[in-house]
Amino acid sequence: KPFFNEPLYVTRPNLPDKARLFVLLDDLLKRRWLTNFGHYHSELEERLRAHLKVRHVLLCCNGTVGLFLLLRALELRGKVLTTAFTFPATVHAVTMAGLEPLLCDIDLEGYTLDIESVKRTITAATSCILGVDVFGNACDYTALESIGRSRGIPVIYDSAHAFMCRYQGTFIGNFGAAQMFSFHATKLFSTAEGGAIVTNDTGLYNRLRQLINFGIRDEESVTGVGLNGKMSEVHAIFGLIALDNIGDILAKLTTLAAVYARRLAVIPGITMQKIRPGCQSNHQYMTIQVREEEFGLSRDQLHAALKRDNVVTRKYFYPAAHNYACYAQLPFARRAVLPNTETVAARNLCLPMYAALAEADVEVICDLVSAIQARASEVASKLKKTAGNQRPREDR
Ligand code: T4K
Fold this sequence. Notes:
Helix content is about 40%, strand content about 15%. The protein has helices spanning about 20-30, 40-50, 65-75, 90-95, 115-120, 140-150, 200-210, 235-265, 290-295, 300-310, 340-345, 360-375, 375-385; strands at about 55-60, 80-85, 100-105, 125-130, 155-160, 165, 170, 180, 195-200, 215-220, 220, 270, 280, 285-290, 350. It starts with 17 loop residues before the first helix and ends in a 9-residue tail after the last helix. The relative contact order is 0.16.
């Protein structure tokens, strides 16, 4: 019998206040303006701009399309240097934009682009650096932007996980040529589906604003090849309500992160992501590395053992992008080139983390991890026995 009767997922959406949602939806119907840069869209852009203290916010239908449009708006050619330790969206956006991903290794503790690997890998054909602020940890902005400046190429960031994070006191969103946020249902700030490109570059913003709306400049001119990447009014309403609660959500995640950190620190073989000094995380993800030699079980075994108790963890980001079948023919698809990426992808596990999660449940999850470690060999043989006759369960 599993410890929890209902699954505890890796995340759950933060839901909008129902009464407020219905009031705004009612107003939306009265306005009869559902999309194409409407009233609520403008209000959300304005509030985000003021909140993040950034010059421009371009709301998008999702983060992936935003990143794709950003790569197109930069009018790049050749290769884009990025990481394989990320969600498929990052590397696919590069490929879909007609560019070749050039994959670099990450640092073993913080999981962002490793600067020495960037220096070793970058070539004259590299037209952009695309860092990922993975799990809300800021890339080494200073080093990456110095490399970008010396080569005369833009540096941009997939900051899908980093909304409300700060670096040296400044909100993420203000670094590099532009940064992308995801506002997907699984993110701490959510519009159900959605995202944004934020930038202080007015020329880049103006190009993006046309690309996101079919390349249309005005009623009688189309300036380039664009698509429909706009956010609708319904999604913007979700965002406006979510923004009102963001302080409470951050406070709750900070409390839960402290409980996890205190409890997990004493379990042999478990280490936490090392957040860059000066970076203030939003604690959206609770990610651990499982070191098999000390823990007694592999990451995959811990994942399977927790699932038996209905704790549904996720192996983000396994497999890393260089192991996808669609990239197998590319030059970077050689495991030996990305040793740290391989190690982190094999060890990393994301534990349940969301504002509606009870502190007491976090304590129980930590008790379970601790008990599994203490009885590692017994757990390993039980898992082995049941592996043969268990139907695969949905990994959600
Ligand atoms: N770059 C990076 C670094 C990213 O991580 C992402 C997205 C992107 C770019 C692209 O941004 P978007 O285009 O999505 O805006 C989820 C999210 O769908 C994805 O947005 C996110 N990263 C990724 C890290 O997580 P999956 O495939 O793991 O989703 P799924 O459906 O398995 O959901 C995860 C858990 O959330 C489930 O265990 C249950 C829970 N859940 C999910 C949904 C959708 C709910 O409780 N309710 C829900 O409505 O990708």
